[in-house]
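Worked problem 6 (solution included).
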Amino acid sequence: MTVVIVGSVNQDVVARVDRIPGPGETVLGTSLTRSGGGKGANQAVAARRAGGAEVAFVGAVGTDADGAVLRAALEGDGIDVSGLAEVDGPSGTALIAVDDDAENTIVVVPGANAALPRLAEAQRTVVARSLVLLTQLEVPISLVEDAAALRPTGSWHVLNAAPSSPFVSAAERLLPGIDVLIVNEHEAREIAGADDLESAVTVLSARVRALVVTLGERGSLVVVGGERVHVPAFAARAVDTTGAGDTFCGVFAARLAASGRLPADADAALLADAARWGAAASAISVTRPGAQDAVPQAAEVARLREESE
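Solution. The predicted structure is:
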């Protein structure tokens, strides 16, 4: 197995609105769509479709109709779902509002994503075959800890600390098992307990082997040891930023797998190249509505990379 994603899978319900409503305010939407989502599943689709990697997904869906739809969608992208458990009750759901400026607000009801505190035997088998393990924090922390402990010696563990609040309380347990920590600016400051980004980067880069901070339209910052590399973003006319960070993470993990290198050999150039591929994929994704629906094909990403050289 190449890239194994342990994480959440949701049914996204997306309303397009002229503007995001304030507290107590009602606005009229212009459209309503349903599609696959969840940070883990989004990243799995990105690693497979845009990154071209062999991918397996480990998580849980419910016994409702959404669970069957979500499983079928992942299978349709050629993702191994032998580690996707079915648990009694509803699947995860995300209620998303997207405005005319491509900004969004998201409410996640975890459902089945919160039902498994530990990996089941079949899931443990999948994780044990990983070259790159990619995790996030929309599932119980104990599940992430299980996966980190079970990955093969010498394999990568890339943790996207989103949402960041669970990481703060579990940092001391999680940090020793992380090879690459990916966060956005807000997450970096919250985890580091810092008021500004520079201080946050200094604190976090001293505690992990490698750090990647995504900066939106300003690109990303890669830090390995004392070396820092700024990776510029690709220009894009955004219509929906939902899932853009997940697309970045999935393709980043796929490029690490494609490199054939191990964490002990990691340097800033390797991670910056992976981040550049992630940036290209996410730039394409924001020009399309949805999360998984917006993930581009690998050929599109390669074409954008070539055109920018």
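Discussion: The chain is about 35% helix and 25% strand.
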